[in-house]
Design a protein that fits this description.
Oligomer: single chain
Number of strands: 14
Structural class: alpha+beta
Number of domains: 2
Strand content: 15-25%
């Protein structure tokens, strides 16, 4: 049976407990083809996420997985090495409630409410990271070292709701706000884009993180705004991790995420022509 392996590009650790500064940018959750190996030199990099931990490894073989391997998620966001994401305002609620998850699990009583709430959070982060999505409305700050070589800047999360402000920092750290008329915001595009509108944008005076873009992403403020297939996939992930609380169970094969989860999420994967 294929073993799951996670690969991603450069990035930092989570900030604010949920800012997937590394995993948000270029996550690849792939099943390991027969004979492949995970590079363990980075296997000790644990990324904390609001009380839970995710263990990240690096995929050594850059080829696409063979047909014999089970694909969990494909990469959805381009690797942009000189960028970071910081969560400035997290979602006010989760896509499914503890009561909904308990009904799905057929669990009575309240003894495991804390565990189930944690599994809901972990499942949401897993889906958001794997697909480059924001499910419930949340605010982020994108930090760049320099502008891209073209007039188009692709934003790493979708669906985009709005871009609040674009700032360039001078050498002394003072911000210069770029007028909204100097760029167009493409909300409908996949990925969402910030397009320079003729004007030449000022260059940052700092060598790192000299460009700040504040934006809001998410399907909406309520759980009902999240597409039903994503909510169902989240419930299946919660059930899977509720039943399999260790990644490897002694005396049994490695536990993998059910293929039906990927099937439900397939329509929300970014496809490039």
């Amino acid at each position: 049976m294929a073993k799951p392996c996670i690969a991603h590009g450069r990035g930092g650790a989570l900030r604010g407990g949920a800012a997937l500064a590394a995993g948000r940018l270029a996550p690849r959750l792939l099943a390991q083809p027969t004979g492949g190996k995970c590079d363990q030199q980075n296997s000790d990099n644990k990324i904390a996420s609001q009380g839970s931990s995710i263990l990240w490894g690096f995929w050594r073989d850059r080829r696409l997985p063979s047909r014999r391997s089970r694909v969990l998620f494909f990469p959805t966001v381009k690797v942009l090495r000189a960028m970071s994401l910081v969560l400035t305002s997290g979602p006010a609620s989760e896509p499914v409630t503890v009561a909904e998850a308990k009904a799905h699990l057929r669990v009575d009583g309240t003894n495991e409410d804390t565990l189930i709430a944690s599994l809901i959070l972990t499942s949401r982060l897993h889906i958001e990271t794997g697909l480059g999505l924001a499910l419930i409305t949340q605010s982020w700050r994108l930090l760049l070292d320099a502008w891209p070589g073209t007039k188009i800047l692709e934003l790493p999360l979708r669906p985009l709701q709005s871009v609040e402000e674009v700032r360039v920092l001078a050498a002394d750290g003072s911000p210069e706000t770029i007028e909204a008329s100097a760029y167009l915001v493409d909300i409908a595009g996949t990925p969402s884009r910030l397009v320079r509108n003729g004007a030449i944008w000022p260059q940052p005076g700092q060598a790192a993180n000299g460009i700040e873009i504040d934006f809001t992403a998410g399907y909406g403020a309520g759980a009902s705004d999240v597409p039903a297939p994503i909510r169902q996939a989240l419930l299946l992930l919660v059930a899977h991790w509720y039943e399999h609380r260790d990644p490897i169970e002694i005396g049994s094969p490695t536990t993998v995420i059910p293929a039906v989860v990927s099937d439900l999420l397939e329509a929300y994967r970014t496809k490039r022509l």
